[in-house]
Structure to design on (154 residues):
């Protein structure tokens, strides 16, 4: 026990590298899942550690889940890590992509990418994501998925 009392730096280093190893393993597992589900030529962009704050049509305050976001050639795909939430938004249903700080009337005090889209029932809905580099994600979605003469912009 005297050894550990004098070597606190060793315990801190082990905990630190343990956390790094866990994060690396989780990302590797997510990448394997993506590779098994999607063709590599479909994936245009991906981000890990993305926070999803739910859909606007869901009742209650924004709920937070963490996972990854993919920009595919024909849609946006989100999958949470723990809650196993999956969300797909086809390109032809996306009306608008923009920056905001609030969702469902609540100021979340963070930079969000919001997507307005039509559900399968042709109802308007909005989702919000906290992603790294929101302006780049907004541009990438607009350049990849939005058509200039979209009928949803009306």
């Amino acid at each position: 026990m005297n050894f550990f009392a004098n070597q606190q730096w060793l315990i801190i280093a082990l905990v630190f590298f343990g956390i790094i190893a866990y994060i690396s393993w989780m990302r590797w597992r997510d990448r394997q899942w993506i590779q098994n589900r999607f063709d590599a030529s479909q994936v245009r962009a991906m981000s890990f550690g993305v926070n999803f704050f739910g859909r606007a049509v869901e009742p209650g305050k924004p709920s937070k889940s963490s996972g990854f976001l993919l920009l595919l050639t024909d849609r946006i795909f989100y999958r949470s890590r723990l809650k196993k939430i999956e969300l797909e938004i086809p390109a032809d249903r996306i009306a608008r992509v923009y920056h905001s700080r609030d969702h469902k009337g609540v100021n979340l005090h963070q930079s969000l990418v919001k997507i307005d889209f039509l559900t399968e029932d042709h109802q308007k809905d909005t989702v919000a994501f906290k992603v790294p580099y929101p302006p780049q994600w907004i541009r990438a979605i607009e350049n990849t998925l939005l058509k200039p003469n979209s009928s949803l912009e009306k």
Summary: The first helix runs from residue 2 to 6. The mean pLDDT is 90.
